[in-house]
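$ fold --in a.seq
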Amino acid sequence: MTSILNTVDTSHEDLIHDAALDYYGLKLATCSSDRSVKIFDAQKQYLIEDLRRHEGPVWQVAWAHPMFGNYLASCSYDKSVIVWKEMNNNKWSPVYVYQGHDSSVNTVSWAPCEFGLIFACGSSDGSISIVSLNGDGNWQARKIDNAHPTGCTSVSWAPAFTVEDQSGSTLGVKRIVSGGCDNVVKIWREDQNGQWGLDQSLQGHNDWVRDVAWSHNIIHNKTNIASCSQSGKVIIWSCDLSDTGNGALSMWKSNVLHEFNTVVWHVSWSLTSNMLAVSTGDNKVTIWKEDHFGKYECINDDKLGSI
């Protein structure tokens, strides 16, 4: 198999903290400690925009679904989330700035498009915000206080699947998963009144949870969450949807994917949800693939084997 490696000279003046392709893989967004967000043409590899509005290091960028237009969110040490929108001729402008946190905003994630234009963000102040664009053009924020009292490091949305309750009705329930400095993975759920509450706490890490990722699709009638930690442990959490009732996802099983000898910074599912990319502190990325029996195998490093 022939692989093609392309590199983009971002010309960032400090550490790059995140890079994300848009839905179609045509645009690349990057962010850095130099306080900038940059947008590139991913194919021709040239700079489209250099966005400078943040007043501190920018930790993460996230693209919204293109059905709403081209929106990009960025979160920063300056306690803010900026929502950028492409206007005309590749010109981008900030259309909303969320400043509802008291400390660094470490993570931002857009909801599935079925729920509308909504993002979640987590902060070192321990809280999580869910911010949505209403039909009147105004943004509304709801907050989960003390979600992770010592700081939230990561958030990820559940896919927009429906669950049948005991009456036979289908429920489209909004859920997010979060990780924090309390070593815990937590699942949050919105109730019928629009309030968010704790659905489940998943214990399995013994150090800071650095990242969480909810799989995009249902595989083998299961929904999966990946989490990784400062200690190097990666866990796959699985819930069998055939065992659910009243929209609850309560029966989570854990499987340790691997224990690396260094911090694991990031986990990311493929769109098909059967492969997981894991990035570690030794500047390596490993790819793990699930077979039809639910077994994961590392497909790009023979020394790691399978579980």
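$ fold --in b.seq
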Amino acid sequence: MALHKDSCIELNDGHKMPVLGFGTYAPQKFPKSLAEEGTKVAIDVGYRHIDSAFFYGNEVEVGRAIRAKIADGTVKREDVFYTGKLWSTFHTPERVRPALEKSLNDLQLDYMDLFIIHIPVELKPGDDPLPLDENGKFIYHNTDIRDTWKALEKCKDAGLVRSIGVSNFNHKQLELILNMPGLKYKPVCNQVECHVYLNQSKLLEFCKSKDIVLVAFGVLGSSRDESWIDPNLPVLLEDPVLNAIAKKHNCTPAQVAMRYLLQRGVVVLVKSFTPARIQQNFQVFNVHLDAEDMRNVDGINRNLRYDYAPMWSDHPKYPFHEEY
């Protein structure tokens, strides 16, 4: 497909999602005001797809930024595609809609464009987003994810959200939903870690075969948040192959990393709170990789997951024991 700054991908429910999105997650040590300023800059630059989540703790700020840009005439509400996420303490069916309503209230929006299950791992329902027992171990819970999905379908029917999907699901977990009796709406997307070191070719092929869009986070190699990510892992943007291709096209390694995914039909989320970089990343539409570039980038895949959530690896629904 020809990719330009207004390019969208059609979802299986008929709605359209911009192929480039602005991610707003930042490690706890950063002030939430950065998400507000960054989102405003992103909308000014041309981003129309904004990705956040209850768990990021910044929906108040992100909502304020979106509303400010609507108020000053930069965009209309229908120009903005907002994605929110159902956190792991809200999987019991009766907690799904209140969770969505809480986010909408924080955002001060009437509806979300997309609401997705953040991760299949479920934690004990309650007010604490990361519930621990007296030994400091996470307290797990086990709702049938299909019951959670039915509650999401009801939110869509109620008009609180246009599209519904999932995140961090492996193909078996996707199949559980796709094959469930009485399925009303298929997930429109699966948002997963995906980048040149984890190119997700098998999961991408699976999702395409089911008409599910793969949305990529961690495209530039993750936030390297010390509390989650091993600091000894290689820095993706320093990769020599990416840098050689960037030099050849007179662009940045980040643009090559993004463009590679876009040309494979993946929706790309990219996060920066630095105005110059927000602008630079949006110039990805001026870059084009040829077949040789694509093959060379294919060759640096090493199935390296930065964000593999090891603290939940003993959870019955931990998604990353499967190859894809």
